[in-house]
Amino acid sequence: MGQQRNFVACPIVRDTKTVPCFLAEYEGETYYLGIQQDITSDFHPPQLKHQVLVEGRVAPDPRVPRICGGIPLQPVSISVLKEVNLACDTLLPSEPGIEAPAAPRGAGPASRRAESGGAPSRSLAGRQEFTVLYAFDDDYLEYAANQVVTEAAAYAQRIGASEVKIYGYRATTILSNGNRLIEKAGLAEKRARNIATLLGGLGVSHLMTDWKDEAEPGDGLTDPSRRRVTIVVTP
């Protein structure tokens, strides 16, 4: 198992002949975060003028090649911090021999045809729990999180759910240097209420909303999975 790296740094944008690469430096080493793709990608590029929280694991095999000049982290979670930091403005020019990996789909929302319908993509029956994940200290839903909410709504309507319980959490992240980052108070409630509003707008009834005010403890390994809302659908 590779070593975990959790740190806060300025993102670095490296130009290439195809798409930009995003990097970050920590303790004298450069790490590869991802490339610019469309909105359906699991990786969402960070913003310059803001620091990012990077949570990822170094591949255990030292023979894994660098990407765009950086050590790849897999899996990796990227959270843009809200505070403006004007020092985060590094753009590196394209260099011979440093190329971006092939993108399964290009940049821009129109590069992939929208999938039709909101039906669940897996066969479901009985009581089901759906987990919506968030970036650190945020309640914004990325594409994948929106798909989870849509899937939960479709399932609840299909089975005529007797109860849909929404439970919100906020969490702690432990950095590699031992420091702790704790999500702001009130975020668990805000996340839960936002999801309830979305589900109600999708036609789901019998909603119950609750949240845990106390921040979930961190362990430095699974912290991104604790920033969540769970949707429990009961027949």
Notes on the structure:
The protein is of the alpha+beta class and 235 residues long. It folds into two domains: 4-95; 128-234, 2-Layer Sandwich (60s Ribosomal Protein L30, Chain: A), CATH 3.30.1330.60. It has two helices and 13 strands; from the N terminus they run E-E-E-E-E-E-E-E-H-E-E-E-H-E-E. It has helices at 143-159, 187-201; strands spanning 4-9, 11-14, 21-26, 29-35, 50-58, 71-84, 90-92, 128-133, 163-168, 172-174, 180-182, 207-211, 228-234. Strands 1-5-6-4-3-2-7 form a seven-stranded mixed β-sheet, with no helix packed on it. Strands 8-13-9-12 form a four-stranded mixed β-sheet, with helices on one face. Strands 10-11 form a two-stranded antiparallel ribbon. A hairpin with a 2-residue loop joins strand 3 (21-26) and strand 4. The protein is elongated and about 60 Å long. The N and C termini lie far apart (40 Å). Residues 110-120 have low confidence and may be disordered.
Low-confidence stretches: 110-120
Largest sheet: 7 strands, mixed
Q: Determine the N-to-C terminus distance.
A: 40 Å
Q: Return the average pLDDT rounded to an integer.
A: 91
Give the overall shape, derived from the CA principal axes.
Answer: elongated
Number of structural units classed as domains: 2
For the record, the CATH class of the largest domain is: Alpha Beta
Which structural category fits the helices and strands?
alpha+beta
Strand percentage: 25-35%
In N-to-C order, the SSE pattern is EEEEEEEEHEEEHEE
Number of strands: 13
Strands of the widest sheet, in order across it, are: 1-5-6-4-3-2-7
CATH domain fold name of the largest domain: 60s Ribosomal Protein L30, Chain: A
Give the CATH H-level superfamily of the largest domain: OmpA-like domain
Under the CATH scheme, the architecture of the largest domain is 2-Layer Sandwich
Number of helices: 2
As a percent range, the share of helical residues equals 10-25%
The Rg value, from CA coordinates, equals: 19 Å
